[in-house]
Design brief:
Keywords: Membrane, Transmembrane, Transmembrane helix. By secondary structure, the chain is mostly helical. It contains four helices and two strands; from the N terminus they run H-H-H-E-E-H. The chain has one domain. A hairpin with a 2-residue loop joins strand 1 and strand 2. The mean pLDDT is 95.
Length: 99
């Protein structure tokens, strides 16, 4: 759980760097050095989700639409897990009361 939180926080920090630099389109792509970033696990996850795009020559830009899509997908998954936990707890209490 802690590792997940750390990675999500690192991803948000990376996205903030791109937004502050205005690197949100292919023509404004920047290198990691120009952004003061060092690629790591969080970086590679964002590249894998096509949130960070590489138009070439080691330059990257933030795909805002894919970032929002990823955030929405994560929120949806969180809600589904929460509902599933509540259903399982209700079932557990119901089974204990019936026994």
């Amino acid at each position: 759980m802690l590792l997940t939180w750390v990675l999500l926080r690192a991803q948000r920090d990376i996205v903030q760097h791109f937004m502050q630099a205005g690197a949100t389109a292919a023509d404004s792509a920047r290198t990691t050095e120009a952004l003061g970033l060092k690629p790591g696990i969080a970086w590679h996850q964002l590249v894998g989700h096509a949130v960070l795009r590489c138009p070439g020559e080691g330059h990257y830009y933030l795909d805002l639409a894919n970032w929002e899509r990823l955030r929405l997908q994560r929120r949806r998954h969180t809600w589904m897990v929460g509902v599933a936990v509540l259903v399982l707890l209700a079932l557990l209490f119901w089974l204990r009361a019936a026994a």
